[in-house]
Amino acid sequence: xxxxxxxxxxxxxxxxxxxxxxxxxxxxxxxxxxxxxxxxxxxxxxxxxxxxxxxxxxxxxxxxxxxxxxxxxxxxxxxxxxxxxxxxxxxxxxxxxxxxxxxxxxxxxxxxxxxxxxxxxxxxxxxxxxxxxxxxxxxxxxxxxxxxxxxxxxxxxxxxxxxxxxxxxxxxxxxxxxxxxxxxxxxxxxxxxxxxxxxxxxxxxxxxxxxxxxxxxxxxxxxxxxxxxxxxxxxxxxxxxxxxxxxxxxxxxxxxxxxxxxxxxxxxxxxxxxxxxxxxxxxxxxxxxxxxxxxxxxxxxxxxxxxxxxxxxxxxxxxxxxxxxxxxxxxxxxxxxxxxxxxxxxxxxxxxxxxxxxxxxxxxxxxxxxxxxxxxxxxxxxxxxxxxxxxxxxxxxxxxxxxxxxxxxxxxxxxxxxxxxxxxxxxx
Length: 428
Fold this sequence. Notes:
mainly alpha; two-stranded parallel ribbon; 23 helices; 428 residues
C-alpha cells in the first residue's frame, strides 16, 4: 500500500468534529499544532470542554511516548511561537512525569511574567491534567525558582491581576527570600510589610507615594522616577489628569502603546500635536518593532481600533499602516516554494476574541497570508471556501491592502481538500 493509499484509508476511519472523514496527523504533529495554534476556548466547531480534553489527551500521550520531544516542542512554542496558555498547560503535563528533568528544563523558559505563573498554578489546581494532584512538589519548586528572580517591576505589574494575585503566588509557593531586598519585596506583595516601611525597593516606594499624592506634578515626578508601569498607575491614581496621561505616553513600551492607543485618544492626549509627534516617533522605528517582537497582527489591531474613532489623526493612522509593513520581518522566513491556503468560509467571520472587538479570524488569516507573501519569495496564496477562489495578489502591494482583499472573499462552506485538489490539478 502506498503512502497516499494509507492516508486515504486513515481518512475513511477518522472523522472531524462535524462527522466528516479527515486525515489524522502523527502524535508529534498533533501536539505541535495544539501548542503553536491551539486554544482552550470554544471554537466554531468544538466546545471549550471538548477541545481542552482533546488537547490534554494528545499532550499526555506524547509525554508518555517521548517526553524530550514534548519538552522541545513546548519551549519552541513559547519562545518562537509567542504562545502562552498551551505551553503552560504542557509544562503542567510534564510535571506529572516521574522524570522531572524535562519539566524543569521547559518551565524555566515558559514561565516569564506573573500572569504566566498565575495561570500555571490555576491549571495545576484545576484537576484538568491526569496525574497532577494540585499544586505541590516540583511545581512549588518551579515557582520558587521563578520568584528568586522576581523584580519589583514585575511584582508591581502583578498587582493588577484579579483571580490569582501576586500575594496568592507568594503564599502558595512558601517563597523563601534570599536577601533583605527580596524579603522586603515578598513582604510587601503578601501584605506583611506595611507600605510605609518599604525602603529597599525604590519602585515600590514611588508607587506607594503615588497612591497618596494628589498634585499632578508630584504624580508625574513619581511616575518618571519609578518608571512605573501603566497598569500600576491607572490602578492607584483616581481620574488621572492630562499630565499623568502624558507621562504614561512618554514612557510607554511599544506593545503597551499599541494596546492603549485608543485609551490615550479617548482621554484627549492625542489632541496635542506634540504628543502625536511622540507617538509617530515611537512607532516609526523598525529597530524598536524588531526588538519588541511586534507582529503585524498587533499593529493591525491597533490600526483598526484607532482608525474607527472620531477625528483620528491621519499621521497616526499612516504610521500604524507603516508599522504593519515593517513588522513583517518578525514573521518566520520560509525558503523555497510555499503555499498558504487561508480559509475564507462563513465560519471565519467570527471575531477572534470573546472580548469586545470587531477583528474577525478571516482578517487575521488574510493578514498572515499577506505578511508571508511580502516576507518570503515564491509564496502562492490559495484562499478557499467550498472551492479555491482565484485572486491575483501583488507582493509589492501593501500588506494591509492584500489582507483586506483576502478577508473580503468567500463566506460559503468549508472544503479543506480544495487547495490540495487545486495543487494536484496544477501538478504543483
